[in-house]
Specification:
about 40% helix; 8 strands; two-stranded parallel ribbon; Metallo-beta-lactamase, Chain A
Length: about 220
Amino acid sequence: MGSCRISFHGAAQTVTRSKYLLEANGSRILIDCGLFQGLKELRLLNWSDLPFPAESIKSILITHAHLDHTGYLPRFVKDGCECPVYSTRATGELTRLILADSARIQMEDARHANRKGYSKHSPALPLYDTAAANQAVRQLRVRDLGDWFEPRQTHRMQKIPILLFGREYWSKVVDFQFLADEGTVADRDLELFQYADTAQEAWEMILDFHGELEG
């Protein structure tokens, strides 16, 4: 069994810039690619290089479209990331709008700083521009809900647990038995959906699935 490692490059000791690096069997997958927001000392961190090369990422998975989960994508693409960026269709549509707006604001802020001369940099530059945002959008690969399960349904991938945080929330949002009745999910795969209410609970489920849980 190959090794698996997860590291956190944002949303730690602060709530913004969700960015988690999953490394397994020689591949790197980035879960979310967001911006730091809020206090200036946090926003300045958006200019810091990440501790791994952008071109080393095999794929990016976006959980939802908020700027602190997607807003760093254009910068990451500008730095050399060429991999596909996966999301649901609705998240992809919102991400297109958010990145275009974010690039416009970045460019306007830089122009304003240059006109007023208050930046320490000459000239002041945007974190990224419209061209980088457009390229990030071109790398989006949107999927409908059923598409996420299709490889499993056709046995082209091994089964993996799908962890859902908050049993009460998810039981109200999705009727998985209905999806099974409609043929979107096989009855035998309903057991893959597991609920966790804490990070410890989720981690134990992951270890248990991989047969590494102690005790």
